[in-house]
Amino acid sequence: MRILVIEDTVVLGEAIADRLQKLGHGTDLIGNGRQAADWLRHQQVDLIILDLNLPGLGGEALLAELRQRKSTTPVLILTARDGIDDRIKLLDLGADDYLTKPFDFGELEARVRALLRRRQGYATDVSRHGNLVFDRAARTASIDGRPCPLVNREFRLLEIFLSGLERVMSKEELTEKLFNADETPSANAIELYVARLRKKLAGSSVQIQTLRGLGYVARVAPP
After folding, report:
1. Same structural domain for residues 103 and 152?
2. What is the pTM of this model?
């Protein structure tokens, strides 16, 4: 999934982005609120992690602007404020969750999983798709009870397909979700990852079909 981190403390922002990248997410980092607001006019992400004390445009104002634009992208607030009134205000502004600084990275990962899961329409981290079981927390997949070994980007690619079953996804969309903005994947990178994933999903109910000139669509085969 593609995640935007808006944090002006360089060390913290880079640490968060690095942690998410190691989990296989495409991650972008911006340290200025106004630049982030302008960037989001032209880019789509699956989750925003937003600090409140930002130069250019404060986090609260940025959140309010996003909701005024009718953006439904989940927003996780990072804040040093821990008062009840502060929490209520942030939630009323449109925040989906908040995390008080300093925080544990394990908790950050859990909240990220929960928000992405909610956006995808799943109530728990574990979902079943025919004979394939997908566990977002454990970052594992199994077919008929047998482990299906996936490297980070293969796992995230499968997650992307499962979040949009029956929907055609272009190579451009998959590239945006799978890679960071500063990465330059080869022209056939998506084809290679899809081919590897298909091979590992052999025997599963999840099928990935190529639609020439359009992209890919994932479906769960009937029993």
Report:
1. no
2. 0.76
Residues 71 and 152 in one domain: no
The pLDDT of residue 86 is above 90: no
Full DSSP string of the chain: -EEEEE-S-HHHHHHHHHHHHHTT-EEEEE--HHHHHHHTTT---SEEEEESS-SSS-HHHHHHHHHHTT----EEEEES---HHHHHHHHHHT-SEEEESS--HHHHHHHHHHHHHHHHT-SSSEEEETTEEEETTTTEEEETTEE----HHHHHHHHHHHHTTT--B-HHHHHHHHS-TT----TTHHHHHHHHHHHHTTTSSEEEEEETTTEEEEEEPP-
CATH number, domain with residue 200? 1.10.10.10
* 223: confidence class by pLDDT, cuts 50, 70, 90: confident
